[in-house]
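Troubleshooting: if your tokenizer reports a length mismatch, compare your output against this known-good record of 138 residues.
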Amino acid sequence: MPQSLLRLFRRSCEYISKDRVLSLEKRLRGVYVLYNHTPGRGRSKERYEVVYVGMARAGKGGGIRFRLTEHRRMKKGWTHFSAFEVWDNIRDEEVIELEGLFRHIYRRDSNANRLNAARGFKLLKKLGRGKTTRLLEP
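Known-good structure output:
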């Protein structure tokens, strides 16, 4: 039996225009990214600036498609999205942890934080404070 390429993520689509949000399957669980696309001109290359990183559970939240539909109605400043579906055996708590890690990484990036009210991941901040979890030698 062949092995899957990735342990956490099953499928993905990247840099899709927000006009195609309704083309996504319903009830996908996973992580998504909102971008602001800037077309290239002359020698400059096109760019996709990260504006927001979020997650979606299939239960109450309705999945990635539902979350992106909400973002289309309420939040401006993004033109494209990427979606990363997790495997069925990945728990919602693990999806939340993944999203928290990405939020933590982008917490001081002014572009990525324009739409992100959370600005970090409290549990990851606590983890870094403990003496037993330090990665650097004294």
